Amino acid sequence: MSRRPTVLLNLQLALLLAPLLLAGCLDIPGLEPGDPCNANEICAEGLICEDAICVDNSTISWEAMSRPFTTTLHDVWGASATNVFAVGVNGTVLRYQGDGLNWVDANQQTSGGMKSTLQAVWGSGPTSVWAVGSSGIVHYDGTTWTKQEAFNELNELIGSYTLYDVHGDGGELYAVGSVSYSDPLVLRYEWGNQRWKKVTAASLSFAGRGVFVRGKKVWIVGTASHVLHFDGSTWKQQNLPSSTSDLALNAIWGFDGDNLVAVGPPSTLARLDSTGWKTDAKARGSGTAYRVWGTSAADLFVVGASSGGYTDQSSGIEHCGSSCSKNPVPDKLRSTTLRGVWGTADGKVVYAVGDTATILRRSR
Predict the structure, then answer these.
(1) Which ranges in the chain belong to alpha helices (H)?
(2) Is 204 in the same domain as 310?
(3) How far apart are CA 108 and CA 126, in angstroms?
(4) Do residues 146 and 112 both lie within one domain?
(5) For each of the chain's 364 residues, which pLDDT tens digit applies?
(6) Does 55 map to a domain?
(7) Is residue 213 part of a domain?
(8) Looking at the structure, do residues 19 and 155 belong to the same domain, yes or no?
């Protein structure tokens, strides 16, 4: 007599009981929207815990905020959810201080009036914020924005340059860009001299577009298919997979110094982990990406040109974990290019900025 029916029955019974048995041993997070969160208020990837229930993170919508200008904004950074700066063309500096949906012009706080285009903004706190751009670096001390100078290896003023990103951590502060397209520029802030100085040891072979600092370590990306990395003592080139060619990257973001993500070309997402850099050429939508920010490798926001490739309407914002999905924006802004993104450490409030001074906020 065959024992196959008995074996199949036992297997089916084991499969049915497995979730119950595991639930008794493990605190499994909710796997579907509407499931309860686990004891640590954690849900499966792509879901977040709201009032003890798992909610689909990609369905949380963005709201448009009011602004005094319609000029393009390139970046956004905040000291808190209600103390946020956005910068852009013609020296535009906008600030949000918790006044409903209203942003105000903060350029009048600039010493001498900032006129050149600002590409990036970052701060170590509410009274120490830097903005960089076309032949300009300005610092905010809590009251006034003042211009700072950049010097080359001979301690001579660098007259004309463009910086595309600025970032710091633990007393280290860097900015990257180029003097010309063929003459890359890496600057490090000298706290003792209170000035920016060219880092000749970096030997950047491409125009820098993005920089990320964690402790003494630095990563720089730009118009090349590799990453320049400083490990605290030596600058070295980190190569992306050999199958990747002409991969110009616009931005880089990290979480613990060992896990980073870089974006730029349409559809592509590059990740660094303990095994090295990997690229996924089909991770995202069809839009070029300009910035990336997140709270973890499973909770990333990528902004850029409006992305197709999804089943519903296009959007300039994507939310990424192991894969990416379109984040809904107001209907009239679906085709708007977004250029900067920043959020609070817990990810509960996120801001995105872009063309025609578009400012969006995502709250939960």
Answers:
(1) 4-25
(2) yes
(3) 17
(4) yes
(5) 444 444 444 544 444 444 444 343 345 666 788 888 888 878 887 777 776 778 777 667 899 999 998 999 999 999 999 999 999 999 999 999 999 999 999 876 554 556 789 999 999 999 999 999 998 899 999 998 989 999 999 999 998 999 999 999 999 999 999 997 668 999 999 999 989 999 999 988 888 999 999 999 999 999 888 899 999 999 999 988 866 666 889 999 998 888 999 999 999 999 999 899 999 989 998 899 999 999 998 889 999 998 655 445 578 999 998 888 888 888 889 889 999 999 999 999 999 999 999 999 999 8
(6) no
(7) yes
(8) no
- My answer on whether 355 and 213 are in the same domain is yes
Contact assessment for residue 67 and residue 92, using Cβ atoms and an 8 Å cutoff? no
Residue type, 223: T
Using an 8 Å Cβ cutoff, are 64 and 360 in contact?
A: yes
On whether both 317 and 180 belong to a single domain, the answer is yes
* Radius of gyration, alpha carbons of the chain: 23
Q: Which CATH number do you get for residue 217? A: 2.130.10.10
Do 14 and 78 sit in the same domain of this protein? no
Judgement on whether residues 181 and 224 belong to the same structural domain of the protein: yes
Which tokens go with 273? 């982990």
331: amino acid identity, one letter: D
What distances in angstroms separate CA 220 from CA 186, 193, 194, 203, 296, one per listed residue? 9, 24, 23, 11, 20
266 contact partners, CB below 8 Å, separation of at least 6: 284, 285, 286, 287, 288, 289, 305, 307
Amino acid at 340: G
d(Cα 355, Cα 199) in Å, to the nearest integer?
33
Distance, CA of 277 to CA of 249 (rounded, Å):
13
Residue 56 lies in a domain: no
With b for 16 or more beta-carbon neighbours within 10 A and e for fewer, the 334-363 pattern comes to eebbbbbbbbbeebebbbbbbbebbbbbbe
Burial of 201 (C-beta count, 10 Å sphere; 0-12/13-18/19+): exposed
* Structural domain harbouring 43: 4-50
- 111 and 9 in a common domain: no
Number of residues in the chain: 364
Q: What total number of domains does the chain contain?
A: 2
Distant-in-sequence, close-in-space partners of 194: CB < 8 Å, separation ≥ 6: 148
- The answer to the question of residue 236 being in a domain is yes
Distance CA(262)–CA(342), nearest Å, equals 15
How does DSSP assign 225-251, residue by residue? SEEEEE-SS-EEEEEPPTT--S----E
